[in-house]
Design goal:
alpha/beta, 3 domains, seven-stranded parallel β-sheet, four-stranded antiparallel β-sheet, about 20% strand
Length: about 550
Amino acid sequence: MQTRLILFVLFLTIGEFCAAQSSTNNYYWITFKDKTGTLYQINHPEDFLSKRAIDRRARQGIVIDQTDLPVSSTYLDSLISHGVKLVHTSKWLNGATVSTSDTAQIKQITKFPFVTSVQLTKPALPKKSTILKFREEELKSAYNPINYGISLTQLTQLNGEYLHNLGFRGKGVHIAILDAGFYHANILTAFDTLRNAGRILGTRDFVDPSSDIYLQHTHGTSVLSCMAGNQPGVLLGTAPDASYYLFRTEDAPTEYPIEEDNWVAAAELADSLGVDLINSSLGYCTFDDPQMSHTYSDMNGNTTRVTKGANMAFQKGILVFTSAGNEGNNPWRHIIAPSDGENVIGVAAVDKYGIRAAFSSVGPAFGGAVKPNVAAMGSSTFLITSGGVPGYSSGTSFSSPVLAGMGACLLQSNPYSDVKLVKKAIEQSASIYSSPDSLLGYGIPDFGKADKYLKLYTAVPVLQKPSWAVSPNPFTDFITIRNLGQFPGSTCLLTIYSLNGVVLRQSKIAVSETIPVINLSNLPDGFLILSIRYGEKEEHFKLIKAPL
């Protein structure tokens, strides 16, 4: 009951400041100079963060600071008293989005001593956008009814079956999807398991809070299916056991900077709710008003508001995946914000053969940083199409969630790893890590390698009562594993691998009081890692192989 109450309060707090983005008002972004007058204190984070959000910070050693404090209520009251409507606030960027039809009000607000800047982010009566936001190629085809169906290809390209076979399919990981709408995701068969298990944790429309996100754009439905789709024999997403928040931040008919404000507001709510991972198959470069558009020099990793918000989400312990963009064949050509973010995993698109899709945006970030970061299958991805049926679509909109779902599985397998280490593991496991380029970044990740990397370099709390003991250590040709607490009659998975993550020996063995492991003389001398996985629990031991 307490958890439900916290979630209600958090949603209500955001809801108080959300207004439908009508076409009769101008919208402005206002930046504040400080947080004088905020009602909250850093030493009482439970007043503005859920327990799950606080626990995530504690687990990753992240300090709660001024950026976590909500904006000044005194400043907000001053804005409202001058007749503007409050749309969003951002604690991370210390500002607010407001709407008004009276430009004189805005001129007065620019003179307020606590206001540092005011920017028009959406004009009244905007024209219908000429920008094709969601380029996707949909193909009609039959599907293979075996195992994962055709979606198996996008999983195995990432060696995602390694984690799935071990039982890591995202269980317990909370994911926020920021998108343009989730049309009929509440009734489609592919999401029956997700709904029936109660793993759609919440929804919110940041464009129009009075609307129903399940009657909005189809794009988010396709994105969700890449991760959460579960239609046996037809489609299985990369994180089918994870839990999801569905947030609409994109106003599909138009393209204006206010959508970046929507994005940041949604990311802050996701943080407050304790989300572990964000996927955003959205991005920004040019707008319907060219004077508002970004330039390539803005794609430097920390300039646009949406990129600043995405970077901050990562700093709060959230793994952030975004589409690199579909601009490869267009005049813009470059990556788009927030995929340029220095803390963001920007995802390019490849086909089933690992060949880059021509539409996939190219890097590097302005200034030379490696972008995109990695790549996944975004050309002819198998998913729930805009027509609500299984089929193929193309776009970095789909390579990002395919990869993000595997990121959730990796988080489940390595709950003590911080996001910096997880991001590094994903990049270092990729196919061209030693020679990254501006097309695929570090290449296509291998989540088996990434998992082993994290097992080696994550500091796991020492168990007061370990379940196993291993001797002798050092060893030459055998070891004996003693069962200290588990019950016999089941099996455990034993894996021995080198310090660079190569599996040297792996077998399933029946659990008993003592488990002999013999014929180890051919293993390389030096340090090795032994993993013992029993159900969802795993323990690691550093071994030394002595020469014979």
